[in-house]
TrEMBL record:
It is found in: Cell membrane. The chain crosses the membrane at residues 69-95, 115-134, 140-158, 170-194, 200-217, 238-254, 274-292, 323-346, 352-373, 385-408, 414-432, 444-463. This is Oligosaccharide flippase family protein. InterPro entries: Poly_Biosynth_Transport. Keywords: Cell membrane, Membrane, Transmembrane, Transmembrane helix. Belongs to the polysaccharide synthase family. Its main location: membrane.
Length: 473
């Protein structure tokens, strides 16, 4: 009874301006250790559940549709993500780090900017649909992109309560809603696939999923609903912090999508679909890691800056070490088991995805070593440093991936990707030292674990990796 009363009190506190800040002092999650442990479990559980739902949907759809459909949607996603990232002003991290993060006027101004931005994103998808079709040589993109892009309109109306809940690590209900909306969206997609037997089931299903997410978030997250507002001070703060986020995420687009853009010019549409199946399996632990890092490490470093006090540094070190060990172990496990997973789950059309799982799981290990350090800079309001980090990563990754595939095929591309993040780690160290957060013991331990796991995976699956050389037409 007491626990239920405390949770209800926390929900009521969130429903009033400034109440979330007060709730953190009295709610069960008030102590940082409790909030971090609970938030971590909820985030991991939610994203694990989301990945499982997505995997089940992927398996079902792979038996209804054809590899080319997955290839087309991969290219749609490249444009979709690119449009979003090239216009991101960091509303979520702005709310999470701002002193006004619980002020309703500030939140309503942020929401108004979000709505305007997302409507413009849909218009941008419509405008870019024909150039994208010409660039990739796929006329269907001209029809698919305007439909898929309409999801932006629904997502633009998502309440800022999603960000204030994450700000205070009160993410239980948020996690359940996200998981439920994802599951219902995939159900809609599978039903459409059975009816149409065409690629159209995928973009329409995404739009339906976005609408479901909006309805559930608006209905079941506690707190006041957003209203259109245009407060000058809030707008200036959002733009001041967000200008570096805008530049940073533009380069972050290259980090997340440059491989698919480049492969879109080198592989057939069927080959891209096969690559994307392997990529999805291989990056599942990384998706969870990014979610946990964004939702938990930033609030942790905001409340306990590692450069201010040895006790805070020790706390951040313990959590970072445990986090990194789990993520690295999961990634290495996929590199070792990826071929078997594809053999068991997919039919013969997708068997080549096994080698892709191994390669992608290994090439991401250097990046994951430094993933938690960005939170230190964000918590200090130093979005400029994160921009320069992402700029360095994007230039190195895109350049070395393109160089590798041009001269040495897919094997060269994967090696180029990994080497890029090894070189970029120097900038990661500079960023972390600037804010007193660099942990050389952590980096050395993770490097040794990664090298050992990579050596074992290469020994076990050298043949599958060598077979990738024949993947190019």
């Amino acid at each position: 009874m007491r626990r239920a009363f405390d949770k209800a009190a926390g929900a009521r506190a969130l429903s009033t301006p400034g109440g979330a800040a007060r709730a953190t002092g009295s709610a069960p999650f008030g102590r940082v250790a409790d909030r971090i442990a609970s938030g971590t479990l909820l985030t991991i559980g939610g994203y694990f559940g989301s990945q499982m739902v997505r995997l089940i949907g992927n398996l079902v759809l792979s038996r209804i549709l054809f590899p080319e459909a997955f290839g087309l949607m991969t290219l749609v996603t490249v444009v979709f993500v690119g449009v979003a990232m090239f216009s991101d002003i960091g509303i979520a991290p702005s709310i999470q780090q701002s002193k006004r993060g619980d002020d309703q006027d500030f939140l309503d101004t942020a929401w108004t900017i979000q709505v305007i931005r997302n409507v413009l994103l849909w218009i941008a998808c419509c405008i870019l649909s024909w150039p994208a079709a010409l660039f990739f040589g796929e006329p269907m993109l001209a029809q698919l992109l305007p439909v898929a892009g309409f999801a932006f309109v629904f997502l633009g109306f998502l309440p800022t309560r999603t960000h204030t809940a994450a700000r205070h690590l009160l993410i239980g209900r948020l996690t359940v809603i996200e998981l439920l909306s994802h599951a219902l969206g995939l159900v809609a997609m599978v039903i459409l696939a059975l009816i149409t037997r065409s690629v159209w089931a995928l973009p329409i299903g995404n739009v339906i999923g976005s609408l479901i997410k909006l309805i559930l978030m608006d209905r079941y997250l506690p707190g006041p609903r957003n209203r259109f507002r245009w407060e000058k001070e809030a707008r200036h703060e959002l733009v001041r912090f967000g200008k570096w986020i805008f530049l940073s995420t533009a380069f972050n687009f290259l980090l997340s999508q440059s491989d698919k853009i480049i492969l879109g010019k080198f592989l057939t549409i069927e080959g891209i679909g096969i690559y994307n199946v392997g990529f999805f399996i291989a990056t599942a632990p990384m998706a969870i890691a990014i979610a946990v890092n964004g939702r938990l490490m930033l609030p942790l470093c905001r409340d306990h800056p590692p450069g201010k006090d040895p006790a805070d540094f020790a706390l951040v070190r313990r959590i970072r070490m445990r986090f990194s060990v789990v993520v690295a172990a999961s990634q290495i496990a996929l590199a070792l088991l990826g071929v078997a997973i594809i053999d068991i789950l997919y039919d013969d059309r997708f068997l080549a995805s096994g080698g892709v799982v191994v390669a992608v799981a290994l090439m991401n290990l250097p990046y994951l070593i430094g993933i938690t350090y960005e939170a230190v800079a964000f918590a200090a309001g130093d979005s400029r440093a994160v921009f320069f980090l992402n700029f360095t990563r994007a230039v190195l990754q895109t350049g070395l991936f393109l160089l590798g595939i041009t001269y040495w095929g897919l094997e060269g591309a994967f090696l180029g990707f990994a080497l890029a993040h090894v070189l970029a780690h120097g900038v990661v160290i500079h960023l972390a030292r600037k804010h007193g957060g660099w942990d050389p013991l952590h980096d050395a331990a993770m490097a040794l674990i990664s090298l050992a796991g990579a050596a074992l995976a290469l020994w076990l699956h050298g043949a599958e990796l060598s077979a990738l050389a024949g993947f190019l037409p």
